[in-house]
Amino acid sequence: MLSQRMQEALNAQVAMEAQSSQAYLAMGSWADIQPGLKGVTKFFFKHSDEERMHMLKLIHYINERGGFAIVPALAQPVLTFVSLKKAFEELFAHEVKVSEGINELVDIALQEKDYATHNFLQWYVNEQIEEERLARECNDKLELIGDDKSGLYLFDRDIMTMDQE
User: Fold this and answer.
1) Cα separation of 30 and 33, whole Å?
2) pTM confidence score
């Protein structure tokens, strides 16, 4: 059984994952209308789907543990970006924020000696390590590319395989 505090904290994370999904969906829509960014578009849409899956996993867990998962209202995400580099900087900042939320949940689980939730959250801890690594790697590559169009072409072509490294 989840404590009220843990249930509320998990529901806050549900909202964060849902907001992440929306943010990446908006990034994907923006990228879709930019010339030559079909790989980036697929990347953002794929990540939107992954964040939704993270949200659903939390919802199921809360309900399975006797709590009540709340489907959140969502704020309008940022819709346009001045550059691809700025979009990926936003992505990285968002992933850091999600990691902070997961770390807070782990802290609460340990304080409350809720080892089942602590165990459940380890998947998210590991996932966030990967998410931050990937976002940092994308930002590093975009920094190297600068305004080089051929580099951007290669980045767009290779971004879907970066996810699997």
Assistant:
1) 6
2) 0.94
